[in-house]
Specification:
Helix content: over 70%
Distance between the termini: 98 Å
Oligomer: single chain
CATH topology of the largest domain: Receptor-associated Protein
Radius of gyration: 28 Å
Shape: elongated
CATH class of the largest domain: Mainly Alpha
């Protein structure tokens, strides 16, 4: 039996690590769950240094389509193994096909569907597996799969909204930077050579632009570019650490326009995820933990884990969420109403619907505000460089006209 090394957190939130014998990763995860350890990383001993894989190789859109088709087939009464065989056979993505084939083999070998899926944690995340497990336990797997497909589709829509908000400014800044660098590197030196031959006094703006041109064309400009790229990679590496992620997420949430958008995205994701889990029969404590880990923001994750501890101590859900100062007052008030009426899942879904619409509106407003602003800034910078190059010529023409 292979030996696995693992890392995770216990009930108190403390980091733990160790070694455990198990038949596969699914069995290991099940063993550690009984010990109340939430696994964050596991690998077979002796294979820890295998080549890293980037992503799961399965798009969320493909997972959503599979889940919806799976739910229809289960609802039609087809056996589980036959469903997986049909869906695996028609899957065009070879990576996903291998995952479904492996899942089918595990189910045929006597494993539950959730345990079989847990082996492929990069494709089926904890939220997916826990909901499938709840569906198997309650005998409502088709209903759970329908909810999962709706959840994934809405999550994809939310991510598209975020990408559309980020792509435009990044592209504009890249084009602007490229144009300005090209002007300083290739065009300005031609004018500088002309001014030397004319022996004309250069205005201050022209001297500044020529100085920048010399810097860009020198070894120092190249070193500055390397330092800039290295700093980006450094920030990304720091963001992967617990402290770096917390600091940067905290800064992002405080930014004037981006911060408001990120807060709305966090609320939409939190309420949609927790609402889907609760309506599927997943216990609220487990649901909060899964929601925290899939929140995508360290500040939100910390507040949800603190809320989970408060719930364990016998408090309501709304009060610790309100004390965290992360979630808007309207959200905590609606959650409090949901707790009092016993319709928490429905209330969370309504909040998610509202904030997903808010995200769409916020993205449109952000793009509307940024478009003219970036055009003006780009025009001022490029226009300033061009005008500064023509200023000495205007001075020279003025002197010639006086003679």
């Amino acid at each position: 039996m292979p030996v696995f090394t693992y890392q995770g957190k216990n009930r108190a939130g403390a980091k733990v690590s160790g070694e455990q014998s198990a038949a596969n990763k699914a069995e290991l995860a099940s063993l550690l769950r009984r010990q109340q350890i939430n696994v964050t990383r596991m690998s077979e001993k002796g294979k820890e240094f295998s080549m890293p894989s980037f992503g799961s190789g399965v798009k969320e859109e493909e997972l959503a389509i599979f889940t919806r088709q799976f739910s229809v087939m289960i609802d039609a009464g087809l056996p589980l193994v036959q469903c997986l065989e049909i869906l695996g056979g028609q899957q065009e993505n070879k990576t996903f096909q291998k995952v479904l084939t492996g899942t089918r083999a595990s189910v045929e070998g006597g494993s539950t569907l959730s345990a079989a899926m847990r082996q492929y944690d990069k494709v089926f995340d904890p939220l997916y597996v826990n909901m499938v497990e709840a569906g198997e336990t309650g005998g409502i797997l088709d209903t759970i799969l329908q909810r999962l497909s709706i959840y994934i589709e809405k999550n994809v829509k939310l991510k598209r909204a975020v990408k559309s908000a980020m792509i435009y400014p990044v592209v504009v800044l890249f084009v602007a930077g490229s144009v300005i660098t090209l002007l300083l590197w290739q065009v300005v030196p031609i004018f500088a050579t002309l001014f030397v031959s004319l022996d004309v006094a250069l205005p201050l703006p022209t001297r500044i632009v020529i100085g920048l041109s010399h810097f860009v064309g020198s070894i120092f400009g190249f070193l500055a570019l390397i330092a800039f790229v290295a700093s980006i990679f450094g920030v990304l590496a720091w963001y992967r650490t617990e402290k770096g992620r917390f600091v940067l997420d905290s800064i992002l949430l405080k930014l004037p326009l981006i911060g408001i958008l990120l807060r709305k995205i966090a609320v939409a994701r939190f309420t949609r995820t927790l609402g889907t889990l609760i309506s599927s029969g997943v216990p609220i404590l487990e649901g909060l933990e899964i929601t925290a880990r899939s929140s995508g923001n360290a500040i939100v994750e910390r507040s949800l884990m603190q809320t989970r501890k408060a719930l364990e101590a016998g408090r309501t859900l709304a009060d610790p969420l309100k004390e965290s100062n992360v979630f808007p007052g309207m959200v905590t008030q609606m959650i409090a109403v949901g707790e009092q009426t016993g319709a928490m899942d429905a209330m969370l879904q309504k909040i998610a619907d509202f904030y997903e619409d808010e995200v769409d509106s916020a993205v449109k407003d952000l793009l509307t505000a940024m478009e003219p602003l970036m055009i003006v800034v780009l025009g001022l910078v490029v226009g300033g460089i061009v005008i500064s190059m023509y200023l000495p010529l205007f001075v020279l023409i003025g002197k010639l006209s006086q003679h």
